[in-house]
Structures are given as structure tokens and as C-alpha cells.
Amino acid sequence: MGLELYLDLLSQPCRAIYIFAKKNNIPFEFKDVEVFRDSILGMKAPSETSPGSAQPEQVRKMNVVRKVPVLRDEAFCLSEGIAILLYLSRKYNTPDHWYPSDIQKRAKVDEYLSWHQTNIRSNAPKTMWIKVLIPLFTGQPLPSEKLQEVMEGLATSLKQLEDVFLQDKPFLVGDQISLADLVAIVELMQPIGVGCNIFEDRPTLAAWHKRVEEAIGKEIFVQAHELILNIQKLSTIRINPQLKEQLGPVLLKIMK
After folding, report:
1. Cα–Cα distance between 32 and 25 in angstroms, integer?
2. pLDDT tens-digit profile of 152-191?
3. Who has greater pLDDT, 227 or 207?
4. Residue 86, CB-side half-sphere exposure with 13 Å CA sphere
5. Do you find a cis peptide bond into 69, omega within 30 degrees of 0?
6. DSSP secondary-structure letter at 71?
7. Alpha helix segments (H runs only) across the chain
8. Cβ atoms within 10 A of the Cβ of 138, count?
């Protein structure tokens, strides 16, 4: 048994891991868990599961928090996106620019990854919940003011991303792409996927986005983001009424 990566490409951390492994030619077996699509939406019956996919129950056995991403390397299991990225970079000795050996450059990557969690990650994913998922479960759109509130918070984070981290550099930590850029870009594709063009009127960030995509490779980037760029198709799915009744109030409470 070799390296197995249990991923759902609707998840930002999962996409970062998928891109990193593909870009660095790390041999792995892709286990397409489809936690959200299978377990919640019921888009695929168990009999329709493809050979390379995995059931959510398999993830639960390896991960006490019952979520993806999960890495399994022989008998060793690991969860959490950043931890998995660092494990892969160390085990497979990936090019230094991803997570530099220079202690100060590495510290700048760590600095961004720490900041990211309570800034970009706390705002960008909410756009998908507001525009697609909550209306899907509640049967009604949220007030436009809610999206505006989230976009204002995201705008503040984007300004800090540009002014504090990117500045006049090609990438967030220097002249080459790093884990900081990878983690940032997959997160920012969430609002893009639901029609919030956050790069419009932000030419510096738009140019950075283009450089990151080119550094990753167009084919890998598009492959990883195919699902999120078609997320609007979920609006046509019929949800079990009982599930709507259970989850609708919970989701609305989360977004208050």
C-alpha cells in the first residue's frame, strides 16, 4: 500500500494538497471522498461509487474529527491541510521554494499561513454558503446585506494580503511560488466559483493570480477547480425535505 490521499475537491485544503502532489509528481492514490456531495446531497448512490472513490465511513475510521483531507502512508494517518502539505514537502524533498530551508524565508511562509486562518479563510468560504448552499437548504436567499457584509470583510483581508504580504513581489514570499501562495489561491477560488469576481478592480492581485496559476500549470489548476467553478449547478438539486428541516435553521444560525 502506497500513499493515499482522501480528498473532496470542493474543499479548499483538499485542492491545495491535490495541486501540490500533482505539481511535484508525488505518486499517490486519489481517494475521492465526496463528503458533501454524497453524504449531504445524496447525489450518488453507493452502487454508483467509482473504483477510485471512498466512502465517508472510511474517513471516519482514520480521522477522529471525521473530515477531509486525510493522508494515509502505509499505517500512518494524518489530517489537517497544512500538516499534510508540510509532511509531503519534507518526505518527498520538494523544491525549496515551496517551504524554504532558509529560516527567515520559512518564517515568512509560516507567518502567512497563520494569518490566513483568521482572515482569508474566515471570509472567503462564506460567499459559497450565502450564494449557493444556504438557499439550497432553506429554500430562500439570504438578504443581500449579508453578502455585502461578508464581501466587506473579505475586502479588508484582500487589502492586507496585497499591502502586507504581496507588496511589490511576484509572490507572497519572494520571487517564486510557495505554500503561502498555494493556500491563498485555493481559498480565493471559492468566491470566484459563485460569481464574486474579487480580482476585478484589483490589478495587483489579478496579476498575482495569473502568476500563481502559471506557476502551478493551467491543466492542474483547472482540473483541481472544476467542481468549485461549477458549484452553481447545485442550485438545481432536490434536497430531502427532512434534511432541509434539520439543517436549514442550523445554517442560518451559523451565518448570523
Report:
1. 18
2. 999 999 999 999 999 999 999 999 999 999 999 999 999 9
3. 207
4. 12
5. yes
6. E
7. 12-23, 56-62, 81-91, 103-117, 120-123, 126-128, 134-138, 144-160, 179-193, 203-216, 218-225, 241-254
8. 16
200 phi/psi in degrees, rounded to 5? -65, 135
Q: 53 and 34 in contact (C-beta within 8 Å)? A: yes
Report residue 22 as a C-alpha cell: 500533482
Per DSSP, 172 falls in state: T
C-alpha 223/C-alpha 43 separation (Å) is 20
d(CA 88, CA 83): 9
Nearest to 79 by CA among 33, 27, 127: 33
As a whole number, the mean pLDDT across the chain is 87
- The answer to whether 31 touches 6, Cβ cutoff 8 Å, is yes
Q: Supply the DSSP symbol for 53.
A: B
Distance CA 155, CA 56 (A): 35
Distance in angstroms (rounded) separating the CA atoms of residues 23 and 50 = 24
Element (DSSP H or E) covering residue 132: none
Q: Which of the four pLDDT bands, split at 50, 70 and 90, describes residue 15? A: very high
Among residues 23, 11, 2, 15, the alpha carbon closest in space to that of 219 is found at 23
pTM for the full predicted model: 0.86
Contact 225, 15 (CB under 8 A): yes
